[in-house]
# Entry
Amino acid sequence: MGDVIHNLPIIADIHAELPDAQIDWVIEESFADMLQLNPHINNIIPVAIRRWRKHLFSKKTWQEISAFKSQLQAHQYDYIIDTQTLLKSALIACLAKGKRYGQGPGTAREWLAGFFYNRRFSVSRAQHAVDQNRQLTALALNYRAPTSPPNYGLPREELLKQIDIQLPEKYVMVFHATSRDSKLWPMGHWVSLGLLLAKQGVTLCLPWANETEKSRANIIATHVPKAVVLPKSSLTELAHITAGAQASVGVDTGLIHLAVAMDVPSIAIYTDTHPDLNGAYGGQNALAINLGGKGRMPEPSEVFSAFDRLGTF
# Structure
């Protein structure tokens, strides 16, 4: 999900230079709903690589692959830009009709991918992923790479209108779950932060996606006054709920990047990764603060102090 969100600013960049551009986006099916939040993407083309490779010898899989190929080849594209520069994304680019643009072997995320493009560019990987994507797209379309804060194109005000569940008046979204245990923040730290925020009259809202995450959310809520464990929600529903939050705080997970992309003031907590190249990257109207890093776990007091810098309470 982080790769998708870090790529969203190129949509606004392209339209700033080419207002009439028609933009299609190939995306893993589980994230397709998220792109529907951006009104400036013309066609969303889902791909199911994760699911297909588990059932590679299934007739249904190959029928779906054939249908995907037909959909991808329905248009002759002027530009096919692969910002992900992985072998799988480069191969997908080869299926589409048009000239392919990407990074060369020297800077592509997977060097072999760099041989599959018609035009190859060298883009420094010693910069944030958002800047890499914006620079590559600017090189491909021959315009000057913007230096302005990124515009992710997710209209927070429109999402606010679609909240249809009862929520606290003043709440912070807490993204406590992540794909790797080494990225988790200790349960006791969440409780300590929740107690500090509760004294400020702020309610924690805790989402979850599986039983392990639900158990963690319930334990935190048991110890923090008025904390709310949300019902199981889709990605789109979580976007609507997050849009109404005064702020968000979370570990290294795609949802914290989604909050940032919607201009929700956010604090990202890192415990096992470095945020320099892939951390939360604030947009035009909200601040994003990255704390911690590989081998450096922030204390609850440090995270609580960061809320003052957000200026939300």
